[in-house]
Structure formats: C-alpha cells, structure tokens
Amino acid sequence: MHATKYTSSTMAAGARPHTLPIAPLAAPGRRRLPLAGDARDVDRAWRPIYAVWEITLQCDLACRHCGSRAGRARPDELTTEEALDVVRQMADLGLKEVTLIGGEAYLRDDWTQLVRAIRERGMLCSITTGGRAFTAERAAAAKEAGVQAVSVSIDGVRETHDRVRALNGSFDAAMTSIRNLRDAGIPVCANTQINRWNAGELEAVLDVLVAQGVRAWMMQITTAMGRAGDEEDLLLEPYQVLDVIPRLARLKERAEAAKIRVFPGNNIGYFGPHETVLRSTMPDKHGGACGAGRLTLGLEANGDVKGCPSLPTADYVGGNVRDHSLQEIWEQTAPLRFMRDRTVDDLWGFCRTCYYAEACLAGCNWTTHVLLGKTGNNPYCHHRALELLRDGKRERLVKTRPAEGMPFDYGRFEIVVEAWPPEEAGAYREGADA
Description:
single chain, alpha/beta, two-stranded antiparallel ribbon
C-alpha cells in the first residue's frame, strides 16, 4: 500500500487558502431537560471512571477537522465556583481520571485551579492540547498544579499538519510545546486523527514522535462532525480501512519497540485479523461496544452532560449541572442510558446481520450518528470491509446534506455499495492477505 491510495484532485501540494468561516457562537446550554424516571439497578451498576471535560470552547486554532468548531467561548460557561462543584460531584460519582480539553484548556483563566481541585479529590488529571502556545510558563504552571500528562495533537508531518490546522507554523509550535512540557517534567503523549490527508505519512509521524521523546500515541479516524464534515476530501472512504488497519498494526509494534505505547481509538478496528495486536492491552484483546454512558462521561463548558464528549450536543445531552446533580443526570436521563439498554435489535444494515453483532453493537456511536443521522450501522469496520472485499464489493460515502455550521453539528451521508474497480481490488487483496 502506498500514500497514493489517499490522494485526490483536491490534495494538491501547498497550503490551502484560509477560507474557514468565522467560528460560530455556540447556543446556550440545554437547560431544564426532563429526567426519565427513577434510577434503575442497571443505572447504578454502571459508573463512569473516565471523563473528558471541555472547560472552554475558546481556541487559538481553527482546525479543519474540528468537530466542535471551536474558537469562541460559549456564552454561558461555568463560573469557577460552579466548575469546582462539578469537580466535587465527579469525585463523589467515582471518577478516576479527568482529561481537560477545549477549545484550548489553557485559555480559561482558572485552568490551573481546576487541575488542583481534581488532584486534591484524588483523581488523575491530564490535558489534551492543540499545542499552539503551551509556553514554558504554562508548562511550569501545569506541572505545579499537578497535571500528570499532556497530549499534543500531531496530525501529519509539517505541511500536512499545518494544512489540517489551517495555520502555517502550527507544526513547529506543537514541537515547541512538546519540548516545553518535557522540560517541565510532564510526560508528553501525542494524538492523531487519521484521514485521507495524512494516512499515507503515519510512518513519518511516528518518526517525529520518537525523535520528540513522546510516551504514548493515541489515534482515531477523523469523523464527519463539525468542520470535518464540511471537508469531504478529508474523510477516509470506508474501504480504506483495508490499508489503514494493517498499517497501524505494523506501526504499533514499531512504536512499542521505541517505548511508545499505542492506544487506538474506539472507532478503529473491530474484529479484523489485527485486533489482537491493536488491542493487546485490553482483557479480551478486541474492541467492544461503545462505553458512552457506561464507563465514560463528557461535559461541555456550559454544564451540559453527555455520555461521551464527542457525541453531538443536540441529540445526546442528558441534562445540565445547573439544573440537576451529576448523579441524577448519569442515572436518570435517557440520552445517557441508551447504551445500557442497547440490544442487537437496535442495529441495522450490515451490522444487524454481522457475526460479531452482539459483542460489538456497531462500535462507535459518534462515528455513525454524524454520518447517517442515527446509530447502529458502522461502515468504518475492518471485518466488514474484508467481508465485502471477498464478495468483490466496497462502500463509499456520499454527502446528501451539509451541516448548519454550529458546534458539534453534522450533515448527512449515504453509504453507497459498489463493485471494486478491477485495477484497485488486486492491491487491496494483497494488503488484506499480508
């Protein structure tokens, strides 16, 4: 497989003109949503252990793949006092680890105060950053407050990263941020969104991470939410997982030989022949059903609560901490219960008839909902792509409706099943057999 598999007429060399729209102002929090009734045994049995907390939507970048269309702060972000109460409630609910994100977390004035509160409550605390300006002073402040790790987004080598981030110089700024964090004594990780623009250079990205002394590498497939959904040539076609997944398996072995731990995201893999390599740290050595509302929790800067931070706001906010306690929202709201109640009967399309349907339950709900407007049928599946390849078929995505242009929004795509072009099928079969 070669990088040319990901090229298109829209991937001409050089930076794209800056045509991004002005960042939208997010709607106010979703207030006074109803509870769904008393907590059930299943609602008490599941407890979140990991939360991703957007503490501000303000950002110093305007990235082309940004699902939240970050840039401007929300009009009603939590006060410091309200945010500190959220920290208390997270600890009481049993959270073990909290990752602070934005926007850009360091643009909120009280970010170090929130870090200290999280650590004082006995929870682990990390930050994910775009790395435009994690200065030496900010790195020192993060270390003093108790930050235990920072993950810097690296989305390609210099030219590609700058194109994805819509800012020339953003790659060099991220490298500087990594050095500042490392010099402050904070373990540095990296995270990468895999898409058509960068899939052919993942090996080169790993070379960069090794050179920078990165400890871990998290990766996920770019999903069609927010600005990413506007950039159709950015998104992988479903059949391209036939190249991406074997490549990631080889990279994982190489990365771990260099003492970099690799963590594939929830929308990567699914029961293909490389799962035991990709998921070697998991008890069953394979991916499973979505953890939204079961083990994970997402909070938006205005107090809205979701079962997963990536899920679209309009469909998955269960309540707001200004109206109900975090425990009430966790236990008694329908949008946070949906994975606790899911069965195979909720699936459709290929996923409904799949051999692994009961174990997988269509994988990542974020990926499917922002593509198709509903969950239960996930085209970004390695097992699925292999089964279709054996029948001489593949799946592509066609956009049928654009997004509105608001944070966490999405348009609509359709899955097109077609015969493999003869000149391409052979190369993919060789890769599948490798």
